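Lecture notes, part 5. Sequence design as translation. It can be helpful to think of inverse folding as translation between two languages: the language of shapes and the language of residues. The source text, in structure tokens, appears below.
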């Protein structure tokens, strides 16, 4: 729904909340960028969210920007992950922000239920990190693409790694395995 006037569909009661944001050094000159966001609205989601990670050095100079887009359902909390951001400068600070949010009323989606189960974290023989598990589509919908994000925390609940994968064509009541490497 597109409109120019003030209404709860275009301008919902509450906007998206940025809960946390972090950059994670991975290999030389590469970083993973992670933001956790929440949609507090009960019947409005966003079918398009344009976002931006701005990265700064120790002198507060902008050294890079990474843009992307996603969506969010009503009442959903999700991680936005961008992997392998390359820069030859050291990142000292990151700022995550939204550039555009296209709100839509989504109150008719009642039975959207995806379950992650049988997850197991492993360290492989070559030292790589691996998250394996299964996703179960317990809805009445066949889903074209499901994006799965894995986030690894240390004992102090700090994010130390993040990864993602996609699974295509997940039929209703189907279980599918997944692997996320990092």
């Amino acid at each position: 729904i597109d409109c120019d006037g003030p209404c709860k569909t275009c301008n919902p009661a509450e906007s998206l909340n940025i809960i946390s944001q972090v950059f994670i050094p991975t290999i030389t000159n590469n970083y993973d960028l992670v933001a956790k966001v929440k949609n507090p609205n009960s019947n409005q989601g966003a079918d398009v969210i344009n976002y931006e990670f701005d990265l700064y050095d120790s002198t507060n100079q902008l050294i890079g920007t990474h843009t992307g887009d996603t969506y969010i359902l009503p009442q959903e909390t999700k991680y936005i992950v961008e992997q392998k951001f390359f820069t030859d400068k050291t990142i000292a600070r990151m700022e995550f922000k939204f550039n555009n949010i296209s709100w839509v009323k989504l109150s008719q989606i009642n039975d959207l239920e995806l379950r992650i189960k049988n997850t197991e974290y492993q360290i492989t023989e070559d030292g790589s990190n691996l998250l394996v598990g299964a996703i179960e589509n317990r809805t009445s919908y066949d889903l074209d693409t499901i994006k799965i994000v894995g986030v690894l925390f240390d004992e102090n609940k700090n994010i130390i790694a993040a990864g993602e994968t996609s699974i295509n064509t997940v039929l209703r009541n189907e279980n599918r395995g997944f692997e996320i490497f990092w």
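The translated text above is only one of many valid answers, since several sequences can fold into similar shapes. Residues 1-9 have pLDDT under 50 and may be disordered.
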